[in-house]
Design goal:
globular; alpha/beta; 11-stranded mixed beta sheet; homodimer
Chain lengths: ~325, ~325
């Protein structure tokens, strides 16, 4: 098993991708990592570490796609980038998956363009793992497709069900359609049409509302990528807002320093479920390969989990199961 | 000043609307309240209280629009409902505003149908007060218009600016367009077109993302009603989810009962800003009158604040200011 890692993806490269790769190698002895990026930069950074040289390979890719590059232009204009070369290596079976904390749009574009779609898939999607009181659940689409066709909701539901079951280990995943009310007639035409088509799925529970996400009344939250992206980023912002509010309350109450620390510790522990580092990243579902993207600010821990998550997708043959489910 | 109150609106009628009305009368001695609903039911409930009878009037309205009634059918099919009669009384200048914790859709439909639109307004909107680390800010549309035209964003921005300044007391309100990224070209066609039109407003700060809401990087968050409604309900669900997570963490840590209570108290105080009771409700902006809706679960405190908020809208001549701003 070889997982290719974008050595120049995210806000902290090459430090974090390389540190995360080395942590992943230490954790899973069956794993090999292929670092993709400017060879000299990678070699210089690797000098900091002791690691199993037989399990860490390097693929030179001199160009760097930045977080600000427009996706289409980046993929076309930088054919020697880590993303283009890494995805191509995956296409040529030189590795089993490609992961990056870099430019999501560019990675999605390259994945669709180079790897192509799985048989039967209309449109690949980004499925985000969303923190709930029951643990991580799936929100999809999280930003890949701003507008959907009704039948795309159904495919997303089918792909999400597989992922929730296999990777999130939810035994019988339930699916809900994010809407402005529970009744079937709620929403715009697109939502009513999607509701009708989704009703053919045995695990479709109907419409859900914004207030159903955190209590996880279902396990797969279906949405267009516009609303999904806003819901995703709003969720990511809870912990910081909350820590600010609690800190302010404690200061104003004149609590002792030690008590303040204790409360902050409880809060941090409680919000652990909101920490994306533990899931590492999210897959592009529906592409003919395993391509995953992590948060731009990914820590070494997040990168490690991104790599291990990709390895699990390979091991569990997620894509074979998706293809079977869509037939 | 007479504020009409729907005595049979919300999940807890007539108890909560009437209790809230009496609290409002106690707080503002210049206020009169007109309770609208089935006369006998109101009179029976009023027997529980001591109050200034000169300042509490009753308008009989024998029909009740339930929370489940479809808006259009309710307004047409129940012409003797508290909502229809209350809004009509406002139209006839028998009161200065109408407030209800009842069926939002029915109240919006009745408000538009009976009161009409303010001069120059394309479409009235629901502006929700959204909790942020800086206090309440405005999210609009919060569910009245699922799909918008580009020019509607501009009017919402103008109306929201007035409300944020006058009622939320933000000295120089800034406006942002909720989108999937900050760059002007982000989003679908509708968002790019809205961005272009909004750029003519002096207080438009550009696109904002889901993560900009809680830190309140701007004061008026513009959105279509579909995304807005989901964002609103997601926000309302934070406190409960959080209290659950913190409670669970504390139990698992085996903290002493007294410490658990102390932490729960700090949390509750910190989340005070998320408590809709303190704003009471939200106005339908753009209708030719003052019509406000509260949460279905409104407590007496929430109803009281809903009434006082409506009174402030009247006093501050919000609608005159909106008309002037749209010219």
């Amino acid at each position: 098993m070889i997982i290719a890692v974008d050595a120049v993806g995210g806000d902290h490269f090459p430090e974090n991708p390389i540190a995360g790769a080395i942590e992943a190698l230490a954790e899973d002895k069956n794993l090999k990592v292929l670092l993709v990026g400017p060879e000299e930069m990678i070699k210089t950074e690797l000098e900091k570490y002791n690691y199993d040289k037989d399990r860490l390979l390097i693929q030179d890719a001199p160009q760097i796609i930045t977080m600000d590059d427009s996706p289409a232009a980046a993929v076309k204009g930088k054919p020697q980038s880590s993303i283009a070369i890494g995805i191509a290596a995956h296409k040529q079976n030189k590795c089993d998956a490609f992961v990056s904390a870099g430019n999501t749009g560019a990675l999605l574009a390259a994945s669709i363009f180079i790897l192509g779609k799985l048989p039967g898939v209309q449109r690949p999607t980004i499925a985000a793992t969303y923190p709930t009181i029951k643990g991580f659940r799936l929100l999809m689409d999280a930003g890949a497709n701003l507008e959907l066709k009704p039948e795309m909701y159904v495919q997303f539901a089918q792909m999400g069900t597989i992922y929730a079951k296999e990777i999130l280990e939810v035994s019988e995943p339930k699916v809900g359609l994010l809407n402005v009310g529970e009744e079937p007639e709620k929403g715009a035409d697109i939502h009513r049409e999607a509701f009708t088509l989704l009703s053919a799925l045995p695990n479709f529970e109907g419409n859900i509302e914004g207030g159903d996400i955190l209590p996880a009344t279902v396990d797969v939250f279906l949405s267009d990528g516009f609303t999904g992206n806003i819901v995703l980023k709003l969720g990511e912002s809870f912990p910081e807002a909350l820590q600010y509010l609690v800190g302010k309350t404690m200061k104003e109450s004149g609590l002792e320093e030690s008590t303040q620390k204790m409360v902050a510790g409880i809060l941090q522990k409680s919000l652990r479920t909101f920490n994306y580092e533990h899931v590492g990243g999210v897959p592009f579902m529906g592409v003919n390969g395993i391509s995953m993207v992590g948060h731009g600010g990914s820590s070494p821990l997040a990168i490690k989990n991104l790599i291990l998550n990709a390895a699990r997708c390979v091991e569990l043959k997620i894509n074979d199961k998706i293809v079977a489910s869509l037939q």
